[in-house]
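Annual report, structural modelling task.

Input specification for the flavin-adenine dinucleotide complex:
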Amino acid sequence: EPVVHRTDAVVIGAGPVGLFAIFQLGMARLRCHVVDVLDTPGGQCTALYPEKPIYDIPAYPKVLAGDLVDHLLEQAKPFTPHFHLGQQVERLERTDGDDAWRLTTSAGTVLEAPAVMIAAGAGAFGPNRPPLPGIEAYEGTGVFYFVAKREDFRDRRVVIAGGGDSAVDWALSLSEVAARVMVVHRRAKFRAAPDSVARLHALAESGAIDLVTPYQLKGLEGDGPHLSGVVVADLDGNTRTLEADCLLPFFGLATNLGPIATWGLALERHQITADPATCQTSAPGVFAIGDIASYPGKLKLILTGFSEAAMAAHAAYGVVHPGEALHFEHSTTTGVPTLP
Ligand code: FAD
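The model returned the following structure:
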């Protein structure tokens, strides 16, 4: 028999919006548990761009994504949330007594709560993998889908594949530390911010970056975990091998709701339909906030998600305490409350 955790609210997803939801739930004196399939909190900020500066968080003219996550964790800390990391929420259903929601994770953890905040971002997000035979053997050693630390690439020969903003930005950035940066793209034209593309071409002209276009990825060379080369082919199928230690394919994020699509919630494409007044989904007590929420005019921005977390936490109070409305107070009046 699995241990059943009973709490006021379960937050699915520990991205920036899920983390702020912990705080907002706490301000409403609601306890919560948080589940994320990744091993570390922070969602896209941690997994995809921890060292990039964000410029549109209110009152932070500039904040590194990783630092934003650290601040959100610190802000949530007084409410002692329970994290269940490295596990995916697979099932969401009513409890036998129909008095709460029951969530079951891939690790067999069972959580029960009257309110659920789905802050699952792009869902079971993962990188689009290039279809190269045997690529799994190099993932984490020679093939990386995001840059956690720029320093990891110092003095290494790096092949970057892709033609969008990520590929161009990282080519510019890594050219400052890597021994060599080669950019493989199947077209001569890059689809990224014009300033960045201009800088890329300038660096290519000065020899600081090699542009390998129009070419596509064809295969990998090396022994098991150690990559030694990346095979590329032109449009006529002529191949050449680029000697390299690392390959960084930037082919975008696969957005796939994963198990969430099977929970019977009203959906719009890859998002969950939410009531813009409360963020409640088609299921009473289940809220959708952050990138996963859809309503007319929705902006997929962190700051919008923060506001949705506040609205959903207020509405969740009425779900946890039926018939009671949350008395609205400013944090300057209440301070950070201690949970009952
Ligand atoms: P996410 O950050 O996507 O987090 C969702 C979490 O839910 C993930 O950790 C995922 O593992 C987890 N999850 C999903 N399904 C399950 C499940 N079934 N069980 C358990 N866990 C699950 N936004 C800005 O406002 N300003 C910017 O400057 C900016 N720059 C960006 C730059 C880049 C390169 C990228 C990729 C995005 C940028 N964004 C920016 C967008 C911003 O990162 C997203 O809007 C934000 O991360 C959304 O937060 P979230 O918490 O809703 O979802």
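Helices lie at 16-27, 43-48, 65-76, 165-174, 194-205, 302-320, 331-334.
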